[in-house]
Amino acid sequence: MPHPIASDEALVRRALVVAADATKTGDVPIGAVVVDAAGRELAVACNAREALGDPTAHAEVLALRAAASVVGEWRLSGCTLAVTVEPCTMCAGAIGLARVDRVVFGAWEPKTGAVGSLWDVLRDRRLAHRPEVIGGVLAKESVALMEAFFRGHR
Description:
Blueprint: H1 8-19, E1 31-35, E2 41-46, H2 49-52, H3 59-71, E3 80-85, H4 89-97, E4 102-107, E5 132-134, H5 139-151
Parallel strand pairs: 3-4, 4-5
Antiparallel strand pairs: 1-2, 1-3
């Protein structure tokens, strides 16, 4: 088992490293990491929509699936998911359904963000499970990665 990841900043930094892999397949560079309550890495993933031809292959969904496989069940109670960009509505729904306790992300996404920007799916009082959400961690680095990718694709 890998050594624990110590801080929210370290989690997003790890997700940024993973995100860079997405560019190899022409995918938007978003990376995600799931750690358990002790901070041990369970899973990582980057966007793979282009690579897999799958509209649901967002980094968060892939990382949650992989973490559930490691844990042996779909409930990821006690876990933290860190991602380089604010999750969309699909990913926010998956995060809530997985019962993740904390979400840490880098860049805010005003066009599609669903945990505080455009919507706030994860903290809706009507839901039974509402994880802690911490946004803007290493935001400059996360934005820079996205901007560099889109500059090269326009």
